[in-house]
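WARN no homologs supplied; continuing
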Amino acid sequence: MESAASCKNKYKLSYQQETPFDHIEGSHEYVALLAEALEEARREIDEEIRNASQEGSERKKQALLLVSHNLDKLKLHITASRRILNDLRSLRRLLLSERHSSTAPRG
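OK structure emitted
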């Protein structure tokens, strides 16, 4: 009968990454792509707002301004998420370097 520790190690060794969110770097890349898409959407909405102003379509302009406001809020959340992921990567590196230095033989 296998111990819990050996089962855990067996599954850990055979685990294959299945999604981009299985590690911090993948999540960071995804958030960066999301930020790029957000910037592109922002440029398109700004253009639509200018067009609505020129057309005199006040209702459409107001709706687009609301979209713009929500994109701004989303950008703040994405920026915060990127910072958190950066912090997590830094902390992981710090912890891993401490773990490696504590397991290194002392002479």
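The longest helix spans residues 58-103.
OK
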